[in-house]
Design goal:
With 270 residues, the protein is of the alpha+beta class. It has 2 domains: 4-147, Fructose-1,6-Bisphosphatase, Chain A, domain 1, CATH 3.30.540.10; 156-266, D-Maltodextrin-Binding Protein, domain 2. Helices cover 37% and strands 26% of the residues. It is built from 7 helices and 15 strands. It has helices spanning 4-28, 45-61, 91-96, 169-182, 195-203, 217-229, 252-266; strands at residues 32-35, 42-44, 66-69, 73-75, 81-89, 102-109, 118-126, 131-136, 141-143, 146-147, 160-163, 188-190, 209-212, 233-235, 247-250. The strands form 3 sheets. An 8-stranded mixed beta sheet has the order 4-3-5-6-7-8-9-10, with helices on both faces. A 5-stranded mixed beta sheet has the order 12-11-13-15-14, with helices on both faces. The longest helix has 25 residues, at 4-28. The chain is globular. It binds D-MYO-inositol-1-phosphate and calcium ion (3 copies). Residues 70, 86, 89-91, 164-166, 193-195, 212, 214-215, 219 line the site of D-MYO-inositol-1-phosphate. One calcium ion (CA) is lined by residues 47, 70, 86, 88-89, 91.
């Protein structure tokens, strides 16, 4: 059986290779391939090509494992392990040349949909900054090999909070409603534009907390493990696993203050 540390080595190696590829494609010139659910929901050729590279590399190295990627969907697992991949998280930043996008690769045990998985290892690589955030279950979280930790003992009024918005206009309006409610009660709010980097920012103490509604498994699988291994509590509705309805991540003290506020607003949405 492959250890979690060995799985992380694979995730990180493939993520670095894909990151270099996507960065080179960006330098060659970015091209929108299609709009997906709405005009703001774009996909570039590089999103698809990067996912194909990751998928081909993983299926050659790990032929019995499953795959779930944003651009090419799922493939069944014979081993019980599935690789959950966002080839470019932060496509809008990628398109505009804002240096906050990442390749996110996690390997999970169990079923990614619904979220009844156990994440074993995860790597999030920002190719522009050269930062690689990594973690395996039980092994702590690292940034370029150095241990990272969440901020601790944080009070909500002093907290810098990250969030994001979905692509549907109606959903966004409602999400903005909660931002309007929270903004007066916290230090400030950031919309970085890549959920994986939001979660890794919590892990590295660059954000005190983060919440978002509407994330897909590939947005949060790797980042949620990295945040948790850095000391964050990461949970969704009712303290259950992070899922499409809600993801909240923060150091334990701040989590106690942030999670109930967000949950109260979002719980009865479905
Ligand atoms: C999006 C980003 C964004 C978040 C959205 C995601 P994509 O992923 O992570 O920050 O707010 O919910 O869909 O489409 O750029 O991979
Ligand atoms: Ca997308
Ligand atoms: Ca994403
Ligand atoms: Ca993506």
């Amino acid at each position: 059986m492959t250890s979690n540390a060995e799985l992380l080595e694979i995730a990180a190696t493939v993520a670095r290779r894909a990151a270099a590829f996507a960065l080179q494609r960006r330098r060659d010139g970015v091209e929108i391939a299609a709009s997906k659910s709405s005009l703001s929901d774009i996909v570039t050729r590089a999103d698809r090509e990067t996912e194909q590279l990751i998928r081909d590399t993983l299926s050659a190295a790990r032929p019995r494992d499953g795959f779930l990627g944003e651009e090419s969907g799922g493939g069944s697992s014979q081993s019980g392990l599935t690789w959950v991949v966002d080839p470019i998280d932060g496509t809008v930043n990628y398109f505009y040349g804002i240096p906050a996008w990442a390749v996110s690769i996690a390997v999970v045990e169990g079923d990614p949909e619904p979220t009844t998985w156990n994440t074993l290892a995860g790597a999030v690589v920002n190719p522009v900054s050269g930062e690689a955030f990594t973690a395996y279950a039980g092994g702590g979280a690292r940034l370029n090999g150095e241990p990272i930790h969440v901020t601790d003992g944080m009070e909500l009024p002093l907290a810098l909070i990250g969030t994001g918005f979905g692509y549907d206009a109606e959903v966004r309006r409602r999400q903005a409603g909660f931002v309007a409610e929270l903004i007066g009660d916290v230090r400030d709010i950031r919309r970085i534009g890549a959920a994986s980097l939001d979660l890794c920012s919590v892990a590295a103490g660059r954000l005190d907390g983060y919440y978002e509604r509407g994330l897909n498994p590939w947005d949060h699988a790797a980042g949620a493990l990295i945040a948790a291994e850095a000391g964050a509590r990461v949970a969704g509705i009712g303290g259950g696993p992070a899922d499409r309805r809600l993801t909240v991540a923060a150091g334990p003290d701040l989590f106690e203050q942030l999670h109930p506020r967000v949950e109260r607003f979002y719980a009865d949405w479905d």
